[in-house]
Amino acid sequence: xxxxxxxxxxxxxxxxxxxxxxxxxxxxxxxxxxxxxxxxxxxxxxxxxxxxxxxxxxxxxxxxxxxxxxxxxxxxxxxxxxxxxxxxxxxxxxxxxxxxxxxxxxxxxxxxxxxxxxxxxxxxxxxxxxxxxxxxxxxxxxxxxxxxxxxxxxxxxxxxxxxxxxxxxxxxxxxxxxxxxxxxxxxxxxxxxxxxxxxxxxxxxxxxxxxxxxxxxxxxxxxxxxxxxxxxxxxxxxxxxxxxxxxxxxxxxxxxxxxxxxxxxxxxxxxxxxxxxxxxxxxxxxxxxxxxxxxxxxxxxxxxxxxxxxxxxxxxxxxxxxxxxxxxxxxxxxxxxxxxxxxxxxxxxxxxxxxxxxxxxxxxxxxxxxxxxxxxxxxxxxxxxxxxxxxxxxxxxxxxxxxxxxxxxxxxxxxxxxxxxxxxxxxxxxxxxxxxxxxxxxxxxxxxxxxxxxxxxxxxxxxxxxxxxxxxxxxxxxxxxxxxxxxxxxxxxxxxxxxxxxxxxxxxxxxxxxxxxxxxxxxxxxxxxxxxxxxxxxxxxxxxxxxxxxxxxxxxxxxxxxxxxxxxxxxxxxxxxxxxxxxxxxxxxxxxxxxxxxxxxxxxxxxxxxxxxxxxxxxxxxxxxxxxxxxxxxxxxxxxxxxxxxxxxxxxxxxxxxxxxxxxxxxxxxxxxxxxxxxxxxxxxxxxxxxxxxxxxxxxxxxxxxxxxxxxxxxxxxxxxxxxxxxxxxxxxxxxxxxxxxxxxxxxxxxxxxxxxxxxxxxxxxxxxxxxxxxxxxxxxxxxxxxxxxxxxxxxxxxxxxxxxxxxxxxxxxxxxxxxxxxxxxxxxxxxxxxxxxxxxxxxxxxxxxxxxxxxxxxxxxxxxxxxxx
Length: 870
Hints:
- By secondary structure, this protein is of the alpha/beta class.
- The protein is built from 23 helices and 22 strands.
- The chain has a domain at 33-120 and 130-242.
- The strands form four sheets. Strands 1, 2, 3, 4, 5, 6, 8, 9, 10, 11 and 12 form an eleven-stranded mixed beta sheet that branches. Strands 15, 16, 17, 18, 19 and 20 form a six-stranded mixed beta sheet that branches.
């Protein structure tokens, strides 16, 4: 089945330069017409800019004082493709949330530029002149002047340049469909089928929509009959807004100990500085106005009060610093003149997509010159509140471990889907443990879930980044106490990815969801928004801000961000920093969650089968039961080669060294979890009678069916072996990542021998977990999953010996050879025993052959390369 691909971006650092923009070619124009003659008989749309429409074209009227003036421009898709590739309302690829745009007259044309906002210096200084000479603006178009008013100096310009692919959707489709491997299938903008849509103008912004058609030889079945993939129309909405007046807002300096999105610039005023990067936080200007949300009339009525409560919850943090009414929430008025495109209105939208999976997303627009936020929004996909069917494949990795700038966006897009998977697991657990009757939902369970999601997304609206160490603040006893969680939540921040708080039968449990602000949220809001008496410049605020940020070492005020969970690249290092884990002992929490999972599996026939019903509920319950094992497998392997990371600065109270060891015993404990619940041959011994019941409801397919009407899994049965094998292989690949192997090898340089896990431990523990049964005299047969695990790991060792990945330490290559020798000897010994079944005998012989071929392979030893073994 085709996978839903959502490319979304939020709150990224905004640069004044970007990828090349393809624009519609402008033909040579005649001399400008007289303004009165040109506009005669036309109806203007007046607002920030006056917009004229004539002969199928759109024209912008620029007054004299709007030339050489900074405006803020955004460009986002207005429509989507029902969950495929394009998502409404979100910027794409390298296009940031906002750019400065400027209109400059040059003879009978107006040059449209994105001026540099990243390199800065004090105006009218040599440094400023050097910046101007060194950093050219991006010229995105030259627009013909169609008409001119000689008396006032205002001009009317052709806006056809906006029909170009400013969003770079060409590359979005290229990446999504991998068209490089399909000659002739690449998408291109078709100028002949692109045209202007609606235009609007308001006091502080003007909207121009471009209906752009992208064509390809892509076969129609790419979208499974949802749309014809050969010609896709995307409605791109350009929003040109009034920029805040210079001097109306004082930026606030960022600090790496408190999590705000930074507006980053390079400053060239002084050379005696540690770095040129100047980081100012992105935030709302409360001194100018409160943040007023409008709940769209697209939001279902039954959820509006919950959304309102979540948004207003932030007033508690702002009241503590003197802004008791920082947030206001209103319903969209029943007024035909009210328009959500008016940038003065911050909105909460509801989306409907085919199999969107359920997600939520915050939108931010800020002034890239200062970091001042000028507009916010929240979008919620309708599937978020559909507590029903979800494929196991989506549960396997609801929040993928990614790297790089765009990975942060895709993680955020997947956050709500992961939270929903956890909530569904929680429901299945409550049913299986007889806490509530099967099929019923506890009071406020769904609305508390939504409140937690909106609290998180609205935190982004205030400029807050994720905080993935927040769950470490509390003990298990505290999160199991309803009195405690009602006051402090499940984690120290709503910006964590917090799982549903359920515990095994007989154990108490606090609130299910994070429905209130945590102590870090109050702390972060004070840092970003509290007035600092007497300070008139950002630099004068620095001493107070530094003092406020010095509390990082307190568990209630710690912060760690997206880069700290970039486990896939080997960059992440601290196992305390994770997603969808809970308590300051997440390994013990994981043990409890797996016990709940086992309870669900045992209770399935009694709790999830009803006479006359289909088998879908049984299959869904099984899929929900997978969530903790899959999630906790990742929690556990993050302890391999881990170190605790401190953001505290020198002299901060209670500051630990930047790196402290994860003890060898703790790492061994984490590996024991992997051994017991992932690698053990007995870990996945499910009842055959249960597996025979895990099917889905089939429907008639003799006529073409659109995906939204029929979206079955690939297989009729539950692909348990493939799910487990994928998880095993992902884990092995991760714990033998070359960067992680380097870190393990380097631990011997930093800590006393035996105090931390070693590179030898990684190989020895894995060898025993995977191949230990070969040394058991009683082994006569193996299951499919364990055979696959052994085959994969044997090949991984051979690959490490014969063709190691870049950066693999020589020590790791030596240990891989030693383990292959041991495997060959063990397999040879087993092969000579009697009593093996045919498949096991063949499997063991294959293991011996893999090891032998790797060890006896004739290969030229390449010369050493600098950096081959850091």
